[in-house]
Amino acid sequence: MRATTLTGHSNPIYSVISHPNENLFYTAGNDKGIVEWDINLKVPQRIFKGIKHTVYALEIIPNENLLIAGCNDGSICFFSLINSSLLNTIKSNSAVFHLKYNALKNELIASTDKGEILVIDPTNKKLLHQFQSGYQKVRAFDFHQNTNILATVSNDEMIRFYHLDDYTAISSIKSHENGVGSIAFTSDGNTLITGGRDAQLKIWDTYTWKLRNSFPAHLFQIYKIAIHPYLPYFATASRDKSIKIWRTGDYSLFKNLSVEKSKEGHILSVNDICWTNAGKNIISVGDDKLVKVWDFEV
């Protein structure tokens, strides 16, 4: 797979997100700003300023024209995608590691370093609800409308399940040793994939919550699992400097995008990845301060 390398950040990059409707994507990290890029021209368009701390998470709410950043001081910053202005800030008690918008309920969900889950009204930018999902870092969570389940993963080795409609607890499973850092439902909602600090991928049946499969996927912690928007593939990013693309049918390896296998690979930890909305590219960011846009072909 061919990659185009984009420079411009002067510090490690921790988050990347693709716009769901436009040919744009956004990157942020320790630069205390968010960069907007054109996916076709592969050049920066705008810089969103006003952030005073490191950004760990990004989310886009297209119907509200909002770009949202979660920061290491607990700030959740709301920016206008129209004029790039900072509209409002909500403050949590600790670093924000993940953000995701639930369009059916018009709710923004955030997770923090101390296990807090925040439910926010993005229109009024008000906190609606807050609860604990353990007391250690919740680096990631995911939900699926078909199952009506929110699943969180924590450094305490647990996966916890909640009803998506009212956030009441359902159950929990002890999973990866030394902590769980990444999670994703497959598109059909039948399977949950988790990645841990043990470098393992685990495949769970969402009807029985039984473990279907477990295998070593990387050499070090898995930071992100990204499901392809419409094809039966998913990608993983790791502290071992590599990106791997897997088949969802049999979980076999499709591509290894490491510096050893691909000269265009990252030379330091890969902190985040995302697919473009058309599914033709995967974008990666890392500690090497680089953005890479990979051409994806089956």
From TrEMBL:
Keywords on record: Repeat, WD repeat
A Pfam short name: WD40
Keyword set includes Endoplasmic reticulum: no
Gene3D superfamilies documented for this protein: YVTN repeat-like/Quinoprotein amine dehydrogenase
Segments annotated as WD repeats: 6-40, 173-214, 215-246, 263-298
SMART domains: WD40
PANTHER family: F-BOX AND WD REPEAT DOMAIN CONTAINING 7, WD40 REPEAT PROTEIN
Protein name: WD40 repeat domain-containing protein
